[in-house]
């Protein structure tokens, strides 16, 4: 499930469903080679400039380079 909605995430946890949000999608795009890190960071910062709340402004600490994990 993909959502940034807090209530939807809480429900997903209760139902033990897998979920991710916008940042998770950006990280996955980088890890799978669909977007370079600089581009994903650019998208994230554009989202932040439009009012999106994110605890990070740089996705590099979230990337599992070469580990095969998502």
Structural account:
Helices cover 46% and strands 0% of the residues. With 70 residues, it is mostly helical. Helix 2 (22-31) packs antiparallel against helix 3. Mean pLDDT is 90; it is low at 66-70.
- The count of DSSP E runs of length 2 or more, i.e. the number of strands, is 0
Q: Termini separation (Å)? A: 14 Å
Radius of gyration: 13 Å
Give the DSSP E fraction (strand runs of 2 or more residues): under 5%
Would you tell me the structural class of the helices and strands? mainly alpha
Number of helices: 3
Report the principal-axis shape.
globular
The largest β sheet comes out as:
none
Classify the helix fraction into a percent range.
Answer: 40-55%
Assembly form of the protein: single chain
Uncertain segments are: 66-70
Report the order of strands and helices: HHH
Give a topology summary.
Blueprint: H1 6-14, H2 22-31, H3 37-49
Helix pairs in contact: 2-3
Which properties best describe this structure?
70 residues; mainly alpha; 46% helix; globular; disordered C terminus
Question: Nutshell version of this structure?
Answer:
This protein has 70 residues and is an all-alpha fold.
């Amino acid at each position: 499930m993909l959502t940034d909605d807090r209530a939807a995430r809480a429900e997903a946890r209760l139902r033990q469903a897998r979920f991710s949000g916008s940042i998770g999608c950006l990280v996955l795009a980088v890890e799978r080679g669909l977007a370079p890190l600089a581009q994903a960071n650019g998208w994230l910062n554009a989202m932040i400039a439009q009012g999106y709340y994110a605890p990070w402004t740089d996705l590099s600490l979230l990337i599992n380079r070469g580990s095969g994990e998502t």
